[in-house]
Amino acid sequence: MRITVIGCGYLGAVHAACMAELGHEVLGIDVDQAKIEALSAGRAPFYEPGLPELLASASATGRLRFTTDISEAAGYDAHFVAVGTPQKKGENAADLTYVDAAVTSLAPHLQPGAVVIGKSTVPVGTARRLAGIVAAAQPDATLAWNPEFLREGFAVEDTLRPDRLVYGLPEGGAGDRAKSVLDEIYAVALANETPLVVAGYETAELVKVSANAFLATKISFINAIAEVADVTGADVTAIADAIGYDARIGRRFLNAGLGFGGGCLPKDIRAFQARAGELGADQALTFLREVDAINMRRRSRAVDLTRELLDGSLLGKKVAVLGLAFKPESDDVRDSPSLDVASQLRAQGARVIAYDPQAVPNAKRLHPELDFADSAEEAASAADAVVLLTEWKQFRNLDPAAFGAIVGNKNILDGRNCLDPEQWRAAGWRYRALGRP
Ligand SMILES: NC(=O)c1ccc[n+]([C@@H]2O[C@H](COP(=O)([O-])OP(=O)(O)OC[C@H]3O[C@@H](n4cnc5c(N)ncnc54)[C@H](O)[C@@H]3O)[C@@H](O)[C@H]2O)c1
């Protein structure tokens, strides 16, 4: 199949490389010249494990190319739309400018029989509206919606071996034709019995935002329990273990700590509420406002705990921040709780020296006022407190004795409940965490 992928960011670049790996002929298109130059040279424009290797092997086959010129999309069979849908400035709603621009610029180049496949996360109702733009430009072209569930850090694996596929299709013969194109694109996954849900546009759009709303709710649920644990002396990690043994609940996504962030969950739950409001169903999702509020409270709680560790004042204290990405195995700092806490600590007078294995360049662009180190040890040198905010493996494996010899004062905030408190206390550290005595 001849495929274009429009928008080559965290989702699109991985999707393009994986589709080429699966044997398709792929053209990646983006308006960002620097990104396209990097990808064309076989360089990943962001950190994603496995992507550089995949770009090298796919480019070597001659099946993967990149361009900034949308007119080169002419003659291709299927076009994935993978551009961003960020939160609108000053509003909860999603900004659909990029999706609209991508579809509008693609429309004049559509050939009869082409299928436009939406991947971006969009408010319900978007696909039906875009289908009108596609049909007006090329009556024999079809629009399908195929939401993406990849996790940054596991994006290559998740794209090559998805845990499910969802097709949102129009009614009638056009839907059948789009389905056969999608079936051909995903032939390998389907042959491996990947579950497939075929539905209408609105269902497919709602699947994606419902999944993210559920995950966000699960995280905020355990973080709400952590708040109660904090005022009672209970241990939220033991509570999560115990309730997680119940198969109906499950242990995953029950890690209390600094909460969720990134380019998806926060903006998706806000856009979902905004859209429900427009549709007159706002009451149904008011709980998501609370989910968001619990999540944001975690950040101020982390700042407060750091102040407590420093005997009531952050002023002039040297604080080593370990972790800036919104999660490990990513350099993504969009709405990162870690970066937010680092910046709040500085705003309240601390001297912040931050380190992250991958996210320093991105963090520096957003917060040039912070100081950055080249290693955890450099950040922690003579620090009054260490705050662990993103649970990279190298931080989880820190040796409390060796690290204790570097710092000025042995104060640690475990913002992700990923260290063994007994071990750290035994090595002479004052250990604090969220929801843990
Ligand atoms: N990142 C994830 O883990 C993930 C997972 C599932 C779904 N999504 C969804 O996928 C979409 C993309 O997310 P992302 O994280 O890849 O964003 P991103 O910001 O990393 O990438 C978006 C890309 O689109 C490009 N772009 C913007 N307008 C364009 C246009 N008119 N033509 C061509 N390219 C254009 C941008 O230059 C950028 O490279 C969002 O809707 C997001 O919610 C993301």
Automatic annotation (TrEMBL):
Asked if the Swiss-Prot or TrEMBL record annotates the protein with the keyword Oxidoreductase, the reply is yes
What is the catalytic activity of this protein?
UDP-alpha-D-glucose + 2 NAD(+) + H2O = UDP-alpha-D-glucuronate + 2 NADH + 3 H(+)
Q: Which pathway does the database say it acts in? A: Nucleotide-sugar biosynthesis; UDP-alpha-D-glucuronate biosynthesis; UDP-alpha-D-glucuronate from UDP-alpha-D-glucose: step 1/1
What top-tier enzyme class does this entry carry? oxidoreductase
Active-site annotation: C264 (nucleophile)
Example GO BP: UDP-glucuronate biosynthetic process
Q: Where does substrate bind?
A: F149, L150, R151, E152, K208, F253, L254, N255, A256, G257, G261, K327
Boundaries of every UDP-glucose/GDP-mannose dehydrogenase C-terminal domain copy: 320-421
Alphabetized Pfam families for the sequence: UDPG_MGDP_dh, UDPG_MGDP_dh_C, UDPG_MGDP_dh_N
* SMART domains for this protein: UDPG_MGDP_dh_C (SM00984)
Which residues participate in NAD(+) binding?
Answer: D30, K35, T85, T121, E152, K267, R334
Instruction: Provide the alphabetized UniProt keywords.
Output: NAD, Oxidoreductase
For this protein, the record's InterPro entries field holds:
6-PGluconate_DH-like_C_sf, NAD(P)-bd_dom_sf, UDP-Glc/GDP-Man, UDP-Glc/GDP-Man_DH_C, UDP-Glc/GDP-Man_DH_C_sf, UDP-Glc/GDP-Man_DH_dimer, UDP-Glc/GDP-Man_DH_N, UDPglc_DH_bac
Q: Which GO terms describe its molecular function?
A: NAD binding; UDP-glucose 6-dehydrogenase activity
Enzyme Commission number(s): 1.1.1.22
Q: Which PANTHER family match?
A: UDP-GLUCOSE 6-DEHYDROGENASE TUAD
User: What family is this protein classified in?
Assistant: Belongs to the UDP-glucose/GDP-mannose dehydrogenase family.
Protein name (record): UDP-glucose 6-dehydrogenase
Species for this entry: Gryllotalpicola protaetiae
